[in-house]
Amino acid sequence: GTCICFACGGIYVWMCCYVVVACVCVRVRKKKKKYKNETMRPILLKGHERSITVVKYNYDGDLLFTASKDHVPSVWRAEDGGRLGTFAGHKGTIWDLDIDRFTTRVLTASADASARLWDAETGECIKVFSHRGPVRGVAWADGSNSFATISDPFVDHNAQISIYDIPQDASPDDYDDTPRLEIDLPKTNDGKRVNPTNVVWLNLNEALFVTFDNGSIRLYDPVTGDELEEFFPHEKKINRVSFNKEKTLFITSSADFTAKLYDVVNLHHLKTYKTERPVNDAVIHPHKDHILLGGGQEAMSVTTTRGDVGKFETRFFHLVYEEEFGKVKGHFGPINAIGINPNGRSYASGAEDGYVRLHFFDKSYLDMKDPVPEAPEGEEEENDGYDEKNDDSSDDGQ
């Protein structure tokens, strides 16, 4: 006898003992189409309602901290993108955050004119430090016993740099909410206000490293508040500055379409990475000679531009040769922040679209060896001729 196969719709041939002999139908199964660019699929972190402003890993690289314009920073597991909790309390945009060395305390800087100290484990707010204007940046000092903030001008008050002391061995009730030192940032000689954009402590707390919206960088003495040095690496606003783990190199991201690499010790300009759009953030790979850049078209023009035209991708440059060798697409708005894991195996990007994309590098990238650029043919011939002459002269001498 025969019977219909409910699995494939074919016809089974039955013997009298009701044992299936064969299925006379042929079922064609479609093979999954393999794409060459299927690798490095990101994990999409959906935890914010507005534009992402900062993405930062902790020192050990097991936690990822993010903040946006929705007033509530979040913390995620770096290995799988699982959301662990939030830090609720601010009433304005979170412009910056920083984590101490052992991930016990977190600092946030907000447009509600306050900086807050949080318990990293419980999410509890430990202390509120009020300012005269919106707080643009915050940074822990080495040792995590003090921190610095930068605030925008407000009404008649100039922009300021403030330093607070909060010893780890002291009770939070004993923390002084008034700064130990305030550095006033007055108007320039032509009457224009210069607003700070980023603040970082240099090694051993020797100086405060502050970037500004006029393209300048200044170093300040954290004890006396004196200005130690000023130079202009960019012509327009410096959006972000990032250091390598040892703080021997730093890279600036600017609205003038470039990112520049500098030596921290002598402040010498080393390399320039050029793009066609404003650069909002850039990071140095911890184990490879690579630079990751993020940016794109101005946010106000995003709705009238296609994603491929707006350049909303992470761009990979070689640190030494300044050559772009790769891109990672996915965002639907300018990338505002990039953070790379200290282990060098993953990175996260946050954009104007409100999403954080957690990327894990595939094996081909991790095992990739950077090729040495070949010299032009003309130069090779000249060098060969030079070597032959040298060989002849050495033979004659012998």
Task: Give a verbal description of the structure.
By secondary structure, this protein is mostly beta strands. The protein has helices at residues 307-310, 363-366, 377-397, and strands at 2-4, 11-14, 20-23, 43-45, 52-57, 63-68, 74-77, 83-86, 94-99, 105-110, 114-119, 125-130, 135-140, 146-151, 159-165, 181-185, 196-201, 208-212, 217-220, 227-231, 238-243, 249-254, 258-263, 269-274, 279-284, 290-295, 314-318, 324-328, 335-340, 346-351, 356-360. A hairpin with a 3-residue loop joins strand 10 and strand 11 (114-119).
Describe this protein with a few key phrases:
four-stranded antiparallel beta sheet; mainly beta; 31 strands; disordered N terminus; globular; 3 helices; 398 residues
Give the secondary structure arrangement, pairings included.
Blueprint: E1 2-4, E2 11-14, E3 20-23, E4 43-45, E5 52-57, E6 63-68, E7 74-77, E8 83-86, E9 94-99, E10 105-110, E11 114-119, E12 125-130, E13 135-140, E14 146-151, E15 159-165, E16 181-185, E17 196-201, E18 208-212, E19 217-220, E20 227-231, E21 238-243, E22 249-254, E23 258-263, E24 269-274, E25 279-284, E26 290-295, H1 307-310, E27 314-318, E28 324-328, E29 335-340, E30 346-351, E31 356-360, H2 363-366, H3 377-397
Antiparallel strand pairs: 1-2, 2-3, 4-31, 5-6, 6-7, 7-8, 9-10, 10-11, 11-12, 13-14, 14-15, 15-16, 17-18, 18-19, 19-20, 21-22, 22-23, 23-24, 25-26, 26-27, 27-28, 29-30, 30-31
